[in-house]
Amino acid sequence: MTAVDYFITGDHDSARNVLAAALRSQGFEVATSPLGGWSVTRGSVSATVWLGAFAGKSNQRLEYQMQFFDYEGQLVARLNRTNGAGAMGGVIGVSRSADVFTELDQAVGSELTRLGLLANVTHHP
What we know:
The protein is α+β, with helices and mostly antiparallel strands. Helix content is 37%, strand content 33%. Strands 2-3-4-5-1-6 form a 6-stranded antiparallel sheet, covered by helices on one side.
């Protein structure tokens, strides 16, 4: 699993709104998961099943997770990518999933930094 922890200052609800907007700006849908985190998805399952990596970057089904923690009063948002993310697209799909995850990390980090909310970030291999 690959993950990024964003340590966020300020109001937690406002920070969640900023995070959701940053994820959506990259074409992802955000849905609340049963444990209170988010399911972050983009693309078509059927296109990916039928076409694999040929579904293209915007149509390949990609699924990531966002979890939330409290650390000494700060909101910690953890963006996760499982090792099998993009596997329906074969080797190309897995590679694309990693590339899109990096782009998503940069977009989220840039927006949090721009708004002065990012206290720290930790990347996990």
